[in-house]
Each structure stands twice: as C-alpha cells, then as structure tokens.
Amino acid sequence: MKKLLFILVLSVLVVGAIFMIYLKSNPPLVIQSYTSKQDNEAVKMIALENKGLREIKLKQLLVNDKLPESAELVISKSEPFEVETKLEGNSNMSFHKLSQRMILPRRYIDQQAIGKQPQHYAVQVHASDIKKVTIHYEYLKIPFTLTAELQAGK
To answer: Which of 19, 44, 85, 121 lies deepest, with the highest CB count within 10 Å?
Structure first.
C-alpha cells in the first residue's frame, strides 16, 4: 500500500514538473506589435495577445527597469491598435488600471461581436526614452515575466 501511494505521489509530482516546464517555455502572453502615439514619442501602445487557455492578470509594468510615469490597459471592442487608431473619444476603447481587468484568451474572443465584446488588448505607456519593457503577470496563479526590447523609431 505504501509503495502504491509513493508511486502515485511521485507521478503527480513528475506531471506537475513537466507542466511547469511546458508553461515556462511557452508563456501565454505575447507582444503583437507596438507603435508610438502620432504626435508623442514618449507614449507607446503595446498590443498584447493571450495565447493561453485562461485569463491573464497584469501585475506590473516596468520601462527600462523603472516604473513608468503611467501605464494603462487599453481594451478595444473594434479595431486593432495601429498608428492611425484614434484613442481619445473613441467609444469602442476603454482605459483601465493594469490589474483591473483580465486579458481574455484569443481563442475565446467572439470575432462576430465587434463593438460589443473586447477584441484587442494593449498597454499604453507614458515614459521617456522607452528601450525595454518588462511586464509581470499572472497566469493560472503562476507568476510570469515578459521582457521586450523596443527599437527606436517604431
């Protein structure tokens, strides 16, 4: 009986370790693109996508390893975030604190519900000379970190 219990516990630990290694090697949050606001290089829009199966909760965003002047989660119910996207006064865009809303998995977003449900997610960052962005987030209650080097002029 003890041998069977030991094998069962060991099996659960091995499967859990394999699952953690898989998750860490295939993180669910990816940066799709980024752009500067039309008239202001110090404001970047970083489009995010959740490739996982569950929601992602953003915890913290760092720019060049420091807290930015401000950072907001932007949710679009219509168009993706591009250079010519109008942010101010757009009824299909909403701005939230980073940890206020969850990022839904891409595969569960209803493409037919444009204008009714969230379609695209981004982070709007206000900081001067943005070179590196680090996003701390939680997926399945497990902490993750996404770091990206941004090229100048994009």
So the answer is: 121
Instruction: Name which of 81, 70, 93 is nearest 154 in CA terms.
Output: 81
Which residues touch 11 (CB under 8 Å, ≥6 apart)?
none
Measured at the CA of 31, the angle between CA 22 and CA 114, to 5 degrees, comes to 110
Q: Which of 123, 135, 122 is nearest to 63 (CA)?
A: 135
Integer Cα distance of 2 and 95 in angstroms: 56
**Amino acid in position 14:** V
Q: What is the pTM of this model?
A: 0.82
Tally of CB atoms within 10 A around 64: 14
